[in-house]
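User: Sequence in, structure out. Go.
Assistant: Echoing your sequence, followed by the structure tokens.
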Amino acid sequence: MSASVRLISKKTNMLPEKTHSLEAYLAMEARSRAKHEFYNGKIVLMAGSKYAHNLIAMNTGSALHHLVQSLSQEFVVLNSDQKIYLPVVNDVVYPDAVVICEVPEFWNGREDLLLNPLLVVEVLSKSTAKYDRTGKFLLYNQIPSFREYVRIEQKKAHIESWFRLTADGDTWDKTTQTDLHKSLLLRSLGVSIALSEIYRQVKF
């Protein structure tokens, strides 16, 4: 998968004249007030999220945290401050929420660089929707532990879940839910998440 394919929707925010090491990026990110993602030497400024996006992300993370408490396996739910590192392509990305099964794994012992997400949630924004649906999904697909991708619309009740059926990542099963009175089954966890919880206090 070429960088031109993966980053096509991010070109306008990229700094093409200079490449950076992962260590330089991490040092810069530790000092920065804004968030940046890292694509094999390229640093990309993330667009600031707005109220509805932040509310949906918080609602989703809270609902997931509550749901996994009753499960026999240990799961950890983290918010959008947790970076995920993909060593195969040397990329660092931020999810809106992430679930880990049992023990988190980190790159070189750095707790800011998670290696083994199980479930990733992205809340779609106008500026990032195309990238979240294509490029970012392809990035997450490089991770062996990655089993489910949840994409949430913020302008209407619409949630998609893509569940990995084969280890090679070539076959995924899509489930869509648009009814606020119903729930979406998350197969990687074996629980259902209510749309009314995801969209609580959100005005369309």
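User: And one key feature?
Assistant: The longest helix spans residues 51-68.
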